[in-house]
Amino acid sequence: MKLFKKSLLKSLWVFHLPLSPCNNCDIEIVDALTPRYDLERFGIQLVGSIRHADVLLVTGVPNYKNWQKVKYLYEQAPKPCFVVAVGTCACGRGMFKDSLNSPCNVDEIVPVSMYIPGCPPKPEAIISGVVKLVERLKSNKL
Amino acid sequence: MRTVVVSIFIIFLSAVSFAREVKVKVIASEENIARYLANREVVKYTSGTIVVSCGEQILPTEIGYGKIIEKKLLPTGETEFVFCYTIRDKHTFHIAGIVEDLFKNLFYYIIFPGMLFSIVFSILISWVDRKLTARIQYRQGPPILQNLYDLLKLLSKEVVVPDIAQQWLFIISPIIAFSCAVLVSSIIWLVIISPSYSFVGDVIVVIYLMTIIPVMFILGGSASGNVIAGIGVSREIKLLLSYELPLITSLLVPMIKSSSVKFADITTASVISSISGIVSFIVAIICFVAKVGIVPFDVSEAETELAGGIFIEYSGFLLGLIKITKQILFSITPLFLIILYWFKGPWYSFILKYAVVLIIFIILRNTNPRLKIVQITKLFWYLVFPISLISVVLALIGV
User: Fold this and answer.
1) Which residues lie below 8 Å from residue B255, measured CB to CB, with a gap of 6+?
2) B129 and B79, same structural domain?
3) Is A111 part of the contact surface with chain B (CB cutoff 8 Å)?
4) End of a domain among B97, B119, B148?
5) Which residues span the domain enclosing A106?
6) Would you say residue B382 has pLDDT above 90?
């Protein structure tokens, strides 16, 4: 079991879920995967299908059209699957808190394992968030 | 539980089909034996001179390649040789022998040249691929055990089978693809270790087994019931139709050059030293890049446009099997090419040849954009297939 846990932490495959974002966080996420930062060193890959993913990376604010789909996608993912909220919007909706279009926070829909605030967070912040997620998962039980 | 039983059954079936060893006592003059050993051709004997140790007779046509265990000079001037032959067992049925063969073949299939060894080998080779790709893109690249971590993680994860999928086919097809890849790998490694493991028609067996793998991916993808997987399946079928024709045409050249369909005969002829050999070697490299499904020809899974394509619904253990199947295929195709075209030479040159073909694969993968399916079909049918036909004609002429 310990070996499986170690291998899970060494190869986190990320599915990127944009919930109508302003695209800033998405660009920073893609930036973290570029040769300059190179997240593949830690075995982190961006995958196209939720069935292959271990991490659900959420950016943006949930609205009335997509907030149920977040839950649906989370249920589709093979467990264990961790949710990471990137950006102020996904962490706590920021300035859209009292907006007409936004029903709830991301963490009211699915359990969020890690918050990475910033508008947008730098790639360094994203990498440090991922490292903290791995550290937390190492100490906790899965 | 059902999957485990089925996979054990498949492994059992494929292990039984191997040949078994028989000792043969031959009384013949030294010249004939020397001629046999030098040319590796079957020397015809009359039925009286061949005596088998267990008291039965074997027709000369059934004899494969053997090696001398014992040698004794007879007072008549002839020499008595005891050969160890690997033959197909047709008219004898010994339970003990069959059980022994079964364990031996299971060892070949599961441990040494088969499953375990080929998994370890393919993990190392695909690490080389990922690291070189990373270095070409000015990146650091993953650690050496990255593919092992990926595999272990996928094995430990949950398997999600969609409700609308045809579940039986969805589950069985990656398992069949994996066992075919392992069988290909064990046949090729056994031939490399000793040509006496080669049997008549093994080249054709390997070609068919390599074709079963994409066919199984097609079946599994279409069984998943996903629309995007359906697009991937249609592309994979067109890809298969495109590359299979020039591939088999180009693989005809080594068979023509050695006039045999046996690995042991083809390895003794050096095909690449002729013009037709070089041309068909290049064609075969392009076709095998398409077969492995790496970048210029990866339309069927295309992460960025089809989000995984045929494999979009696979998860956990089944996805792990698919990944390792592709990695085994990637690591074994350079070996297959080298055996067919470029085998002659000392053993250390073999590693160099393997590295050369592998690096050609990796460079092709990193310097080319993904082609559209129309472009792929046009490339293979209008350009690559005529070239391979020309190489076959050249080989028939003898150039």
Assistant:
1) B203, B261, B266
2) no
3) no
4) B97
5) 11-139
6) yes
Chain B residues lying within 8 Å of A11, measured CB to CB: 146, 149-150, 153
Q: Quick one: which of B23, B40, B194 has its CA closest to B108?
A: B194
Residues B385 and B239 in one domain: yes
- How many structural domains does chain A have? 1
Residues B93 and B191 in one domain: no
Whole-number average pLDDT of chain B: 80
Q: Which residue reads 């808190």 in tokens?
A: A97
Min CA distance, B172 vs chain A (Å)? 18
Kindly report the pTM of this predicted structure: 0.79
- Cβ of B312 within 8 Å of Cβ of A47? The answer is no
Q: Is A38 on the interface with B (CB under 8 A)?
A: yes
Report CB contact under 8 Å: B159, A78.
Answer: yes
Chain A closest CA to B149's CA: distance in Å? 4
Picking from B126, B153, B154, B315 by the largest number of A CB atoms within 10 A of its own CB, the best residue to mutate is B153
Render pLDDT for B10-64 as a digit per residue (tens, 0 to 9).
666 554 544 555 556 666 666 666 655 554 444 444 333 343 333 334 444 344 4
Q: Which two tokens stand for residue B295?
A: 């970048």
Give the domain range for residue B86: 20-97
State whether residue B134 sits within 8 Å of chain A by CB: yes
Statement to judge: residues B288 and B231 lie in one domain: yes
For residue A98, the domain's CATH number is 3.40.50.12280
Judged by a CB distance cut-off of 8 A, whether residue A51 touches chain B is: yes
**Residue B134 vs residue B101, higher pLDDT:** B134
Distance CA B143, CA B243 (A): 34
Residue A3 within any structural domain of the chain? no
**Bridge partners of B86?**
B21
What pLDDT, on the 0 to 100 scale, is given for residue B46? 34
Instruction: Flag if A38 and B149 touch (Cβ within 8 Å).
Output: no
Q: Rounded CA gap, B320 and A111, in Å?
A: 27
Q: What's the average model confidence in pLDDT over A38-48?
A: 86
Total residue count of chain A as it appears in this document: 142
**Terminal C-alpha separation, chain A:** 10
| A39 in Cβ contact with A32 (< 8 Å) | yes
Which position has the token pair 């001629």? Answer: B35
Calculate ∠ Cα B6-B10-B12, nearest 5°: 115
Q: Which of residues 11-30 of A touch B (CB under 8 A)?
A: 11
pLDDT at position B393 is 92
Count of domains forming chain B: 2
CB contact under 8 A, A4 and B155: yes
Residue B130 sits at the chain A interface (C-beta within 8 Å): yes
Domain boundary among B97, B132, B161: B97
Contacts of B149 in chain A (CB under 8 A): 6-7, 10-11, 43
The reply to whether A138 touches chain B by the CB within 8 Å rule is: no
**Per-residue pLDDT tens digits for B71-108:** 777 776 666 666 665 554 444 445 666 677 788 888 88
Q: Which residue of B has its CA nearest to A46?
A: B303
